[in-house]
Amino acid sequence: MPAIKHILIVEDLPDVALWLREQVQPLLHPERIDEAGNLAGARQAIAAHRYDLVLLDLGLPDGDGMSLIAPFRQANPKAQCIVTTIFDDAEHLFGALRAGASGYLLKDDTEEEFASQLSGILAGRPPLSSSIARRVLQHFQPAPSPMEAPLTQREQDLLTLIAKGLSVRHAAEKLGISHHTAASYMKGIYSKLQVNSRAEATLKAVNLGLVNPG
Q1: DSSP string covering 111-156, please?
Q2: Angle at Cα 105 formed by Cα 99 and Cα 110, nearest 5°?
Q3: What share of the chain has pLDDT > 70, as a percent?
Q4: Are residues 150 and 134 part of one domain?
Q5: Sign for the pseudo-dihedral over CA of 38, 87, 92, 81
Q6: What CA–CA distance (Å, rounded) separates 67 from 182?
Q7: In contact, 57 and 78? CB cutoff 8 Å
Q8: Is 1 among the domain residues?
Q9: Which residues in this protein are found as 4-aspartylphosphate (predicted)?
Q10: What is the pLDDT along the chain (214 residues), one digit of tens a residue?
Q11: How far apart are CA 97 and CA 105, in angstroms?
């Protein structure tokens, strides 16, 4: 793969932009790293320079970063366009991939995992967070029968509240159980559904018809 010499970071939070810069500098050794805090600044940078890589946030103050993917790829057809975001839902994920993103990394991954995925770019590996890679695979696999992942009524009650946006602690309060009991239920849910996060558990349970967030 050609060397990555010029990088554009599109991120509106200065501390996160600095963190991203600190990740890519020792891994990719670029000659130049430019930063833009919004869509307008990113469009100006793309018009003025050519890039080998963009790290693109989706939630920008002046619009959806997804709208930048196509024009970036048109201006830099051989470049990598990697979304770096907190959004781990299917709508953002598949929307970005359909728009032309070549990778999708979650900013709340561990630093080690994030760095590993970035360094994999040089080896030609697709830069996908592990939970996102599983989401992509699950999308193209038939959903198992709900009987393959039975949840108790209490587990379903807890997961339904979490699907509505409550934290585990707040869901526990709603159900009148301790936080430790709720955490134990979540551990059982993870094991039964074979997932590793609340977001994955919620998505899988809803797809299986085990919970109804509505």
Answers
A1: HHHHHHHHHGGGGT---B-HHHHHHHHHHTSPPPPGGGS---HHHH
A2: 170
A3: 91
A4: no
A5: positive
A6: 40
A7: no
A8: no
A9: 57
A10: 568 999 999 999 999 999 999 999 998 899 999 999 999 999 999 999 999 999 999 999 999 999 999 999 999 999 999 999 988 888 888 899 899 998 899 888 888 888 888 888 767 777 888 778 777 777 666 555 544 557 888 888 898 888 888 888 898 999 999 888 888 888 888 888 888 887 788 788 777 777 766 5
A11: 12
Strand partners, 128: 104
Rounded distance, CA 116 to CA 120, Å?
A: 6
Are residues 69 and 23 part of one domain?
yes
Q: 25 and 126, same structural domain?
A: yes
Q: Tell me the pLDDT tens digit for each residue of 120-150.
A: 876 777 788 877 877 777 766 655 554 455 7
Q: What is the pLDDT of residues 34-48, one digit of tens each?
A: 999 999 999 999 999
Structure-block tokens of residue 1: 């793969």
Q: Which two tokens stand for residue 49?
A: 């320079």
The answer to whether residues 96 and 183 belong to one domain is no
Q: Are residues 129 and 150 in the same domain?
A: no
Please indicate, yes or no, whether residues 195 and 179 belong to a single structural domain of this protein. Answer: yes
CATH number for position 126:
3.40.50.2300
Model confidence, pTM: 0.63
Residues 6+ apart with CB under 8 A from 80: 4, 52, 53, 54, 102, 103, 121, 127
* Residues sharing a CB contact under 8 Å with residue 104, sequence separation 6 or more, in sequence order: 82, 83, 85, 93, 96, 97, 127, 128, 129, 132
